[in-house]
Amino acid sequence: GAEGSTLMSYFSKNQIQALKPKITFSTLRDLQCPVLQSNDLQGKPEESCSTEELFEWLGAVLNQVSLDNTSSSFLSTYCCPEPNTVVEKAFLCTITGFIIPENIIQLLEQLCCYFSEPKLAYWLTLTVHGFADSPVSWRESEHGFHKGGENLYNFVIFRNLDYWLQMAVGAHDDCPP
């Protein structure tokens, strides 16, 4: 009916703009980064950090939380896990929008190519968030919003092309396959 044709014209006008991802770039200077060893997921005191410590640190960095644990901060007393190293420049790229799995695979392949050039990075990450209020999460299950709507996975890729895959979902969601 008329309602259907109105919707069709609306989507045909707005579809391209809605599906075009928004890309932002930023450079983080003098960033404290955890020291990681690709073959050591649990971490070792004074040698490397664990996967859990990295995941927590990454959340702080992506949310632009200060890592210096100042007593005057009411927002956060978080500090980078030990051992850590200061990176003069870290590059952060955020892509927001509807992104299909093929594009994520393409991004991963491009990131892996980064190591074939003489770069100084030992590892890099790619985090993929589902929308917090997405109707579905993993498999065919409905996505339980409840508290935080957690719905994400994170690749940590190392210079030798070993990688870690971390996944987070809400307590009421199906576990990833």
Commentary on this structure:
- The protein has 177 residues and is of the alpha+beta class.
- It has 2 domains: 22-96, no CATH class; 97-176, no CATH class.
- The chain has 3 helices and 5 strands, in the order H-E-H-E-H-E-E-E.
- It has helices at 2-19, 51-62, 101-113, and strands at residues 22-34, 84-96, 123-129, 151-158, 163-169.
- The chain has a 3-stranded antiparallel beta sheet with strand order 3-4-5, with helices on one face. A two-stranded antiparallel ribbon has the order 1-2.
- Strand 4 (151-158) and strand 5 form a beta hairpin.
- The longest helix is centred in the N-terminal third of the chain and has 18 residues, at 2-19.
- This is RPP40 protein.
- InterPro entries: RNase_P_Rpp40.
Helices, strands, pairings?
Blueprint: H1 2-19, E1 22-34, H2 51-62, E2 84-96, H3 101-113, E3 123-129, E4 151-158, E5 163-169
Antiparallel strand pairs: 1-2, 3-4, 4-5
Compact summary:
With 177 residues, this protein is of the alpha+beta class. It has helices at residues 2-19, 51-62, 101-113, and strands at 22-34, 84-96, 123-129, 151-158, 163-169.
Mean pLDDT: 79
Runs in which pLDDT lies below 50 for 5 or more consecutive residues are none
The tally of strands reads 5
General shape: globular
**Biggest sheet: strand arrangement:** 3-4-5
Please write the string of helix (H) and strand (E) elements.
Answer: HEHEHEEE
Rounded Rg: 19 Å
Biggest sheet record: 3 strands, antiparallel
Could you estimate the helical fraction of the residues in percent? 10-25%
Kindly name the structural category. alpha+beta
Tally the structural domains: 2
